[in-house]
Design goal:
278 residues, alpha/beta, Rossmann fold, 2 domains, 6-stranded parallel sheet, 3-stranded parallel sheet, 9 helices
Amino acid sequence: MQKIQPRGIVLDGRILAEKIRKEIKTALHSKEAGYTERPGLAAILVGDDPASHVYVRLKEKAAQEVGIHFHRYACSATTSQHILEEVIDFLNADESIHGILVQLPLPKGLDENAIIQRIDPRKDADGFHKRTSVLSPPLAATVRFLQETKLPLKNKRAVCIVNSEIFGKGLTHALRQVGLRVATASPQDPLLGKKTLTADVLVTAVGKANLLKTSMVKDGAVVIDIGTTHCRGKTVGDVDFKNVQPKASFITPVPGGIGPMTVAYLLHNTYTLWKKEK
């Protein structure tokens, strides 16, 4: 009897994220563990970008719900590189802080990479430091989504559409760890559609609405949408979700896919870093 192949199954990031948060909360409040302290997560917010403020509030709310102490450090848009580095140095030395994140993007004139590399890698909750010990939340979420499919991934072909070489390298490394053969492609590639049609797993992280159309997707592919953008007052992904869903085996939605999972894995990383210091 031939096995029926899955079609159009939505990988719900909200449900998975809630599961991860519950696991952290249970671990922190376990009587058996006997923890008398709690992890501390510090968020550095520079400037008045409305989206950045929303994201930090979401992270703060989620941290408080699981029992992680959240510390917000708000700086004006005119904050200098030197002052920002001093804030990071202060947090690096603070024993009550176990995870540090810098909400990106930073205002023009600030060197984002220098700021990120200033963070003690033992406290790098976002996983951006070159010597980090944790996987960055979007990458961890992508791997978890793939694991949730329960599909055999070894030696399957993945194509990642990215517009950042640094992120593409990290994504490639993470996917190879689960046995995939990985190729990256630029959204400007004239052969993009041909390349994506060869993929058993498609990951897109561009931030361009409806970039990935049904004609570009192999029948039965797993589609992971990391890209988000605002279009006509709505948050949408890179994937033409309505039309691609019936063709994909599994697919993540936007919103409700990568977003909640990214926050959950930020908390997971903070908990992991805290445990390492125990």
